[in-house]
Specification:
Elements lengths: L6 E5 L2 H6 L1 H4 L5 E5 L4 H10 L6 E5 L10 H8 L4 E7 L7 H6 L4 E5 L13 H10 L17 E5 L5 H11 L5 H24 L24 E7 L3 E8 L6 H12 L11 H9 L2 E7 L3 E9 L11 E12 L2 E6 L1
Helix pairs in contact: 7-8, 8-10, 9-10
């Protein structure tokens, strides 16, 4: 990073800043600010000095409860800056509706404990900062140890679903109760990812689904569904890619918010599969190339630092492609 494009970190108070001191100490070029009534002046002065942060890490203790308009002010001052909201496994669940309104696409839930691992492929915050600063997509290889084999299945029929699930269960070896729970979660998540790819993603010109959930079907001409997974003895990472690209960031956020508040609502409110995937994974990522591809993935561990009731993070990115003078230009956001 250049000196004029550091990472900006904003906190509610000194105690809040101290909570994240260790995590942020591993990130170079961080400007730390405790938000107060002079925050807007500070941001204006930074802009006047030519300081243009490429990423803002915003504490969940500050936003949205204390400063609900903070994201709007940050974007007004630095329109091209990425926003990442940072919270912990012991904090209240973030207000997904507010994140939807402010188009916040990155939420990191970081375990706070003396035993929380801080290496690149285990710290959600460090991985997120690296990917956002370098404009990289989330990939399952980042979640597992270097050299771990990635198993790839290019499917041709919905009948192959059980084979994929069975392979995951056989690869997650271990006799402990934690290993058995990981096998069960892995099977459930693989099933949900495959169901979404086979029945949720394919949509006609009218936006309606082409296939009924559960019906046996073969892939259409030109259609691709690829499932990948890796297990390094501790972390199970999974990813599903289809070439429909029928999701959109706001649609995903609406699904998460709607199902988060679904008590008393019918089961068919939409997006239940994505919601289950998000809530079961330790970390959840989606990358969308509109009309071309959707990738849904994430990871979970044998010894997860996330209690079942704890909130989960997400990263929702888009890749836009355009043709200029015959060349394909890729833009990520």
């Amino acid at each position: 990073m250049q000196l004029n494009d550091p990472v900006l970190a904003l906190f509610a108070d000194a105690d809040d800043e101290n909570t994240w001191y260790s995590s942020l100490s591993m990130i170079p070029e961080v400007i730390r600010i405790i938000a107060n009534r002079f925050l807007l002046v500070t941001l204006d002065n930074m802009r006047g000095l030519g300081i243009n942060p490429r990423l803002a890490i915003v504490s969940g203790a500050l936003y949205p409860t204390m400063m609900p308009e903070l994201i709007k002010e940050l974007k007004n001052n630095f329109p091209r800056m990425e926003i990442l909201v940072l919270s912990s496994t012991v904090a209240p669940f973030p207000q997904i509706e507010r994140l939807l309104t402010d188009k916040v696409r990155h939420l990191v839930i970081e375990p706070i404990s003396q035993n929380a691992a801080l290496c690149r492929n285990q710290s959600p915050l460090l991985l997120a900062v690296n990917n956002l600063v370098n404009k990289q997509k989330w990939e399952i290889a980042e979640y597992v140890k270097d050299g771990t084999q990635i198993h790839v299945f290019q499917l041709s029929s919905s009948n192959e679903k059980e084979q994929v699930i069975g392979t995951i269960e056989s690869m997650v070896q271990g006799e402990t109760a934690e290993h058995e729970l990981l096998r069960q979660k892995g099977a459930l998540l693989a099933d949900e990812m495959l169901e979404n790819a086979f029945y949720g993603a394919p949509k006609g010109a009218d936006g309606n689904k082409i296939f009924r959930k559960g019906e046996q079907r073969s892939l259409l001409p030109g259609e691709k569904i690829v499932f990948s997974f890796a297990f390094d003895g501790e972390t199970l990472a999974m990813e599903m890619a289809d070439n429909w690209g029928s999701l959109a960031p706001d649609m995903i956020m609406e699904y998460l918010a709607r199902n988060q508040n679904s008590i008393g609502l019918p089961d068919d409110i939409g997006g239940r599969g994505l919601f289950i995937i998000w809530r079961f994974l330790d970390q959840f990522h989606v990358n969308i190339t509109p009309g071309n591809q959707t990738v849904v993935g994430g990871h979970l561990r044998v010894s997860s630092p996330f209690p079942p009731e704890a909130p989960r993070g997400f990263h929702i990115t888009t890749t836009e492609k355009e043709k200029i003078n015959g060349c394909t230009i890729t833009h990520r956001s």
